[in-house]
Amino acid sequence: MIDPSGSTAGIVARTSFRVTFDRFLLPTTAFRQSVCLQPSVNGVKAAKGCANGVFLDPAYDPVLRQIVYRQADTSAGLVPGMHYTISVFPPPGDGTATGIQAFDGAPLERAASRTFTTRDVEPADSLPDTPPAVDFCGELYPHVLRDTCAANGCHTSAGADDHGVHLGAAEGLDFSSVARLAATSPHVAHETQTGEHAAQPEVSPSSFGRAMPIIDPTRPGNSYLLYKLLANARNGARASTPALEQTRLDEIARLRATVVVGLPMPPEDGRGKELLPAELNAISAWIAAGAPTACP
Question: Both 162 and 274 in a single domain?
Fold first, then answer.
């Protein structure tokens, strides 16, 4: 990772790159053609300026509002002692599908670049950056998903009754057992169902949030569960300054006004505990890993 506040000299050849935004992104724009890493001391402002780009594999995390660009597992790494520049840029406005956009279509305000130099000699203990591991069976499921989401009879097959009618698991998502979670999580979130084929999950919908899966394995940015959690300002980390916190709250308000229907989760009436930053991060990392549910 390159820290914008740190040194740009002596970067290891297998480094990854983390780009953090103050807005939730349109996930379909968080792909490799929206960034350019090439041996140069000059940045680029559009994909067409990336003549000798290094192949990078992106992973978007809506919890951190961050794209991690990792080098391929088969890559030998960057050239030692070489100057490189990494650039991210907005859409060029020519109809091509490149450039970073917010979830509501707002483009990245301007291109940004960072120049650095790789080490002359790679450390012997240098290893590729890998996604974080998550203990789904021992920690995430029993202590977060079940104890929070299935608490008070909400997302559980026991459900609730309304004038004698059994309602079942809220929104059709059942956390009462691992098997029921696995069976219900790929379904389209009820609150995002619109149009003729609304029951069919969409990977790249024409409108962000349409027919969004509750959980889209490997794609936390297209998983409605995360946005229901992120729409609750009680969850996650507070910003470090009042101004940044207001920015965070404004973005949550935009999310609730356009994508997240109904109450954020857990309900703001006090039912269910708020999720800590580490718990939100674990849910996102678990989804990014394919949302595996195989337990002993």
Answer: yes
Instruction: State how far the Cα of 28 lies from the Cα of 222, in Å rounded to an integer.
Output: 9
Residue 130 included in any domain: no
Count Cβ atoms below 10 Å from residue 196 Cβ, excluding itself: 6
> What is the structure's pLDDT at 137?
94
∠134-275-142 over CA atoms, to 5°? 50
The CATH number of whichever domain residue 34 belongs to comes to 2.60.40.1220
Indicate the DSSP class of residue 161: E
What's this model's pTM, rounded to 2 decimal places? 0.86
295 phi-psi bin (left φ>0, alpha ψ -120 to 50, beta other): beta
My answer on whether 90 and 220 are in the same domain is no
pLDDT, residue 161, reads 42
Strand partners, 85: 38, 115
In a domain, 125, yes or no: no
- The model's pLDDT over 15-25, given as tens digits with 9 standing for 90+, comes to 899 999 999 99
For 177-191, the pLDDT digits (tens) are 888 888 887 788 777
